[in-house]
Every structure is written in structure tokens, then in C-alpha cells.
Amino acid sequence: MNLSSDLTLAAAREKFFSGHVLPEGLVPAPILRSWQRCAEQGLDAGDNVLAEPMTAGELRQLQQQNETLRLMSRPELMILRAEARLTDSVVILTDAKGTLLDVVGSAEFAGAAARVALQPGVAWSENSTGTNAIGTAMAERRAIAVHGGEHFFEPHGILHCAAAPIIDPFGKLAGVLDMSGHADAGHTHALGLVRLAVEQIEHRFFARGFEDKTVLRFHKLGDLLGTPREGVLVFDGDRLLAGNRRALSLLGLDRLAFRKTTSDELFERLDTDLRSVGGERFSAIVQRPEERPQASLHPVSGMARQSGPYMIAETRADLERAIKLVNADIPVLVSGPTGSGKEVFARHLAERSSRAGKPFVAVNCAALPESLIEAELFGYEAGAFTGARKGGARGLVSQAEGGILFLDEIGDMPLLLQSRLLRVLQDKQVSPLGGGPPKKTDFVAICATNRDLKAMVDAGTFRADLYFRIAQVSISLPAVAELPERRALIEYLWQAHEAGHGRLPDAVLDRLEAHDWPGNLRELANTLHATSALAGPGQRVGLDDLPNHIQPPARRTSPLTPSGELGELTEAAMRRVVELNRGNLSAAARALGIDRSTLYRRLVWAGKAN
């Protein structure tokens, strides 16, 4: 928003809450619709918001009920947390009713946010908390940003919030992802980052749970298969059962098509060369139950596809040694900091081994609830526990038959489960929960960790016998900051986006190379993905398209303390630059080399002084 927009909003707010009809265009249509809904419910914008948080026990129960959503969203919360800390913001995950489940990010802002009840256990639906990004995204069923005075309740005017609804495979609202910060700070990329994160979460929903169904992945561009941009449809026989928003958009459908539409009504036939009944052609991958080569908690990501072959000389040598071990049925331990590409390395190792083309089953031992990990790993018989499937279920160990079982974050596996895993690795037999005879199994374990397992053994928190079983050879992956070839890695990963933007300019490459990348390969790949989206289709990338935490220091002037350069600027000079940019404060701030919120604040202060 620029200065004139803020004044227009203040005037529109005064008119609306005085009972006047607003002329069209004074406020965004979704905001006006939300104001009207809130007024019709009898909410008073001047009231203090009465939000009673849950008890600790009630919150714990709610989080357990939404454990699957929290599990699927955890990688995005971790990635966005770094951005939130740098922009003094928080990232929020809610359930389908808008109740806050998790809040991560800036501890300083979280304290301020708590004063307006932006904390776990509080409901932020429109009918309880008025116009806000979470509640309005739910009501409008679309991504939305709500800035300052656009909030219905006056106390919420301190916030800038950007949120996107999370839709499950059956078209139902599963929750909301939100990024909230101070209204007087710049949040240029918040909505774009939240949209990208939700796209990743919704894509992850299809990684499991449909093993006995036909899953179709398709797109007009074959390079986008295997990424969150692909369309995904699930068929039960020939009946359309589920799908993501991208698939529905590509075919011009809505969620009402689920359970009412057959594959014959959509496509000439389900094949890799896919053609719709309307004649549109798509590249596709068809995964049928009887043909499915693998079952994995995490599908091969775009990062894994693109970065797999890129390795420094030392890692290439380690890879060749690891191939020999896997071919001899010997487990391999891969260690390295979070995001350093341990799963990417493991998948590439599997593809180069004698078990190529066989199942690659990935299990994140840290992400699975302790109460479920045993059933997930070893399977269970019918009636083994409350909520068990009628016919029981094969465990992930059995699903890895003939291939690779990838145990990520093995250091977080409970001690009791470590004992059972050791027995399975030794005996190559698995016994499901609830009884039943042990079954022979054939797989090779590749384990990964970002922890010092030897130190954990010494501390008694990791079994020594399991450690020596899985760590006969340990391969250590370096952090991105330690790589001597960082620039080459960046250029290599950018190839996935180069067709839409061209080569990265040297100034952008210099800035990316200079960043320390605490999130390593994962952070780098996601940053490039976000940069591509922020630049826009067909546009050459510039420094302004980089996420906030990658921006050069001069572009991150504190909104609270004017820089020396700004102190030398006169009010007239600032206003002249604003006029030259037709009132666009963001463009004017870039021209001045300062933060937009800093420029806005100085103009407001100057106006008050006059």
C-alpha cells in the first residue's frame, strides 16, 4: 500500500462503519464482502476482541486430532520460520475451523501478537475474530492478504496477514497457512511465499493413502511432472475419487466432479500420452495399484530430480563406495546438517545400485507420531488397535521388498523401536502388530541423520548395537556454506527455471553465493523456486525478486531506525521521488535505496509535524 491508499482505506472504513454505502473500488471486493458478513453477524468493530484460548490439555488434544495435517505441513513451517524471523513475523497453521495449531517465527513479534490473541488454541474464523486473513481465506476459499485497517476489529489494525487455505485431496478445507507481522513493515512477498508453501503441502497429501487406487499425474509441460505444479487425480476403478486444485483447473472442473465423473468422461484413455475428451494433450504418469513400483511418505521432489546428479568430487567418491555396499546388502549411514540433501543422495544411490527400479520407501522417523511409527514400519493385523483398517495393513518395511528402506532422522527413533528395527535388520523378518507369523523380507537400509549418533550412543540415547549395525560405513554430506563450488551449484539448480527467465544475472548470483544458507540445499532450492515465482513468467530475475532474507543489507534498512542516507533526505526530496513514481511507495523506496515502510513512516511523521 502507498500513502494515498492508506488514506483512502481510512476514509472508506469511516464511511462503512457510519452506515454509508461504499462506492465500488474503495476497498478490495473480498475485504468489503467480509466487512458486510461481519456486520450482518452483529460484530462491532470498536469492541475489544474476546478470545478465550483453550486449556493446555484441550490444545494438545486438538493438535493430536490434526496430527496428519501438522505432519504434512512441518517442512513448510520450518522453511518459512527462517523468513519470519528475519521479517519479524510469525507463521501460523490452523485447523479447518480456523483454530491456531502452531505458531513459529519471531519470538519478539509473537509476544506482541499474543496481545491480540494470535496464539495457539484461539479461533480466528470470521464469526469469532472478524475480517482477518485466516478467517477470510476460509470464507472466500482463496489466498488473501489483509493489511492494517482492512481488519474488521480496530485492535487488529497493527497486523499485516497473508493466508491461503489448505485443501485436502477430496476438495475439503483442511486448514489454513498464514504469515503475520507488523502492519507498518514491508511484507512484499508474504502472500507469494504462503501460496507456494500451501501448494507443496497439498501436493504432499497425495504421497500416501492411495496405494490401492489409480493415481494420475499430468501437466501440459512434461518438465513439471513430479513437482507441486502437476495436476493429480485419483480414480477408484474408473470413478474420479480425489484430485488437487491444479488438476481441476487444467480440466475446467470443480470439486463437485468427485464421485460423479468417470475417467472415460475426461480422457480418451489413461496413458503417458494423455488426451482429454476435448482434445487437449498432456504429459502424464499413471500409477496403477498393480504396477506401482514404490510407496513413499515423500514423493520425489523437484529438488531431488534436479540436484541428484550434482555432486562435488568428494561426494562422488563416497557415492561409488556406497553403491558397492548396497549391492552387497550392507546398510549405509548418511549424515549431514538439515537440508543438505541426504534423501537426494540416498535416492541417487538407489538409482545407481543393483536395486534400481525397485521400491524406495522413505520414512521420516522424526515426523511420525511415536504412537504410530511401529504400525507404520511393521504393519498390523486386523483389529490390532482402535482405528485399524478392517483388513490390516502392510508395513513400510514390507513395502520396501526388493528395494531400499530409507530411514531419515534415525536418531529420533524411540529406543523401544530401535530394538525392533535391529532385530528386523539382523533376521530379515518382520512381524506385524497384533500377531501373525513373521515374514521374510529383502531390503537394504539407508539411514540418515543430522545428529551425532556416536555421542548419542555414549549418552545412552541411541542403542550401540543398532549404531554399529547401520554405521559400518558413514558418509558425511557438507553444508552448502562449506562447498567451494557454491556458484556452480546455484547455476545447476536454476536450470529447472531457466527456460522461463533466462540465466541468472551476475548481481543475483553474487548475492546468492554470498548467503550462508543455514537451511542448506533445501533452502537454496526453495529460494530459487520462490524467486522464479516472484519474478513472474517470462521476466528476467533481478535483486528485487529475491526473498527478503536474501536481499542485500542496503535493501533491508530497519523500518524503525532511519539510515544515514535517509536522514540527509529532505521531506521535499522524498515527496518528489514519490511523485515521479506516481504515488507508488514501493518503487520510490527502491529508487531511494530504503525500505518502503521507512519511507512511509517518515512521510507520516513529516505530515504530523506540519
Unreliable stretches (pLDDT < 50, length at least 5) are 292-309, 555-569
Q: Helix coverage percent of residues?
A: 40-55%
CATH superfamily heading of the largest domain: P-loop containing nucleotide triphosphate hydrolases
Strand content: 5-15%
Tell me the domain tally. Answer: 5
Query: What is the alpha-carbon Rg in Å?
Result: 26 Å
Shape: globular
For the biggest sheet, the summary is: 5 strands, antiparallel
What does this structure look like?
The chain is of the alpha+beta class. It folds into five domains: 56-204, Beta-Lactamase (2-Layer Sandwich); 208-287, no CATH class; 302-478, P-loop containing nucleotide triphosphate hydrolases (Rossmann fold, 3-Layer(aba) Sandwich), CATH 3.40.50; 481-553, Helicase, Ruva Protein, domain 3 (Orthogonal Bundle), CATH 1.10.8; 557-609, Arc Repressor Mutant, subunit A. Helix content is 41%, strand content 15%. The protein is built from 25 helices and 17 strands. The strands form four sheets. It has a five-stranded antiparallel sheet with strand order 2-1-5-4-3, with helices on both faces. Helix 19 (486-501) packs across helix 20 (506-514) and helix 19 (486-501) runs parallel beside helix 21 (520-535). The radius of gyration is 26 Å and the shape is globular. The two termini are 23 Å apart. Mean pLDDT is 80; it is low at 292-309 and 555-569.
